[in-house]
């Protein structure tokens, strides 16, 4: 029974499934993976640098102040 799990492990496909570019949705280019082009990669990088990807801080703490008990 454990032998069967070993066999299935060797059945992994070597090729990666092509992923669409996260910026424009076109098929990603191998050179610029996971993006389709250098431009899209820069766009993504700039977004990171400008902080658009920052996780918004939850306002729950300020709301707790409103609680008048
Ligand atoms: Zn793109």
Describe this structure in words.
- This protein is mainly alpha-helical and 69 residues long.
- It has a domain at 18-51.
- It has three helices and no strands.
- It has helices at residues 2-9, 38-50, 60-66.
- The radius of gyration is 22 Å and the shape is flat.
- It starts with a helix and ends with a helix.
- Zinc ion is lined by residues 21, 23-24, 26, 35-37, 40.
- Zinc ion (ZN) binds next to loops.
Rg measurement, Å: 22 Å
Helix content bin:
40-55%
Distance between the termini: 62 Å
Tell me about the biggest sheet? none
Q: Give the tally of β-strands.
A: 0
- Counted by DSSP, the helix tally is 3
Q: Could you give the order of the helices and strands? A: HHH
Q: Structural class of the helix and strand makeup?
A: mainly alpha
Question: Mean pLDDT across all residues, rounded?
Answer: 76
Low-pLDDT regions = none
Bound molecules: zinc ion
The quaternary state of the protein chains shown equals: single chain
Strand percent estimate: under 5%
């Amino acid at each position: 029974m454990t032998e069967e799990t070993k066999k299935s492990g060797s059945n992994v496909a070597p090729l990666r499934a092509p992923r669409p570019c996260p910026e424009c949705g076109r098929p990603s280019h191998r050179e610029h993976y996971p993006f389709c082009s250098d431009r899209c990669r820069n766009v993504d990088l700039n977004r990171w640098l400008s902080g658009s990807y920052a996780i918004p801080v939850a306002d729950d703490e300020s709301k707790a102040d409103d609680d008048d008990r």
